[in-house]
Amino acid sequence: MRFWPLSRQLYPKQLLRIMGGETLIQQTMRRVLRCVPAKRVLISTNPAQAESIRLQLADWKDDLADNFIIEPEARNTAPAIALAATVLRQRNPQAVMLVAPADHVIKDHRRFQSAVALGAKLADAGHLVTFGIRPIRPETGYGYIQADLRARLGRHDGLVGHPIVRFVEKPAASTASRYVKAGSYYWNSGIFLWRASAILEELARYQPALAQAMRRIERGLSSGASGELIARAYRQLTAVSIDHAVMERSARAAMIPVDFAWSDVGNWSSLEEVAPRDGTGNVLSGNVVDLDSRNSILYADRRLVATIGLSDMVVVDTPDATLICPKARSQDVRQVVEKLRKQGAPEHLEHRTVFRPWGSYTVLEEGPGYKVKKVTVKPGSRLSLQLHHQRSEHWVVIAGTARITCGRRVFTLKVGESTGIPKKTRHRLENAGVEPLHIIEVQNGLYLGEDDIVRFHDDYGRSARSKE
To answer: pLDDT tens across 263-313, in order?
Structure first.
């Protein structure tokens, strides 16, 4: 959440268009496809984000249809990787597994492909491989890896693999400066390669409780056990990172120093590592007009943002929240998000505009007992057949033609026409035309949460009770 206000709890940064026309997860997918075909890509995610990710990866929906691994609940990277490795080993006991976070920016795809090729060779030899990023500054927001550069495990296309001496937690500034000068310390990229069987063996060695629980889950997957039984076993796992669980302990750990531009865009100041800058060092994006600012990050989503004479600042404007802070304090954005969470502020949870498989909706106004949305439905798409227990709705068509199901009635509304949907009434909104449908929806009721929905039929396979 250090990339707030662009990232939100229900809309993390991998779903954002931070650089270029594609989101980070779309960029990651294209990068990985240089190494493996789409049908061999597994997507590990959670129920809250699965729908948005399916929507963003729609270009590969046929290849990925059965390749989503849904974590019942977030348990950090070790359980997530263990679950994915278990599924992968079932499909191919000899499979080599590339773990690629979906929210990184990597500028040189060819060099990434070369690093993966060397990593796969080392993984075939039994190593647990990670990529090390040569530090360009004494960064305190990254973990570090110390490599034994005198020992060589293999080479390919100018890249060399080395044994790992140790992993180091995020250091103090003075320690980070010492690491940079030493020359044998690298940023921990969080990208890994290993045989699926090898990481499961090391998990059994160093995390026996996790491995035992994973074997129960594997038996459940093989025998067709209910999803709830598997989910219950997964929720009991201890949350732990793969670094703490295995990599810091394993004698099989290896590192490849890589020479491509990389950033995990973990906070706003890290964006300047990979984004183009103007003549005075500014990163500018969107509708920004600037006079005489230097070394600043200026982002405008929709509104015009004018800045004058800033130095080493971050300014980020979105429709419902604005962030202004010194670049040196950009790591502290997560503290702001935590305050918003404790206050129950919706701005930490999601954006005013929320995307769905059928289109999107934007919250225009809300208050006690009412909420006003603009709803957009793509041509040929429709919402689920549903009802709400706590709210009524009133729809006004402002563009396109709507086909409405309300109770037993099915009828058409054109621009300027409206209808009401009483509480506890089955209803559906559909765009049967060739142009986008836009309506204004006014909700009234004591409770207006998105989980007040009972779904009877849905084109997208969503559960009976979930967000629209």
So the answer is: 888 788 888 777 889 999 999 988 999 999 999 999 998 899 999 999 999
Sign of CA dihedral 188, 194, 200, 205: negative
Report d(CA 119, CA 129) in Å as an integer: 6
CB atoms within 10 A of CB 187: 22
Omega into 5 within 30° of 0, i.e. cis?
Answer: yes
DSSP state of 11: B
If DSSP states are collapsed to H, E and C, what string results for 233-288? HHHCCCCCCHHHHHHCCCCCEEEEEECCCEECCCCHHHHHHCCCCCCCCCEEEEEE
What's the structural domain count of the chain? 3
- Count CB-CB contacts under 10 A for residue 82: 28
Residue 222 lies in a domain: yes
229 or 188: which leads in pLDDT:
188
Residues 6+ apart with CB under 8 A from 108: 260, 261
Expressed as residue numbers, the domain containing 398 is 353-457
Q: Is residue 462 within 8 Å of 450, Cβ to Cβ?
A: no
pLDDT digits (tens, 9 = 90+) for 310-348: 999 999 999 999 999 999 898 899 899 999 999 988 888
Whole-prediction pTM = 0.82
Residue 229 and residue 220 in contact, taking contact as beta carbons nearer than 8 Å: yes
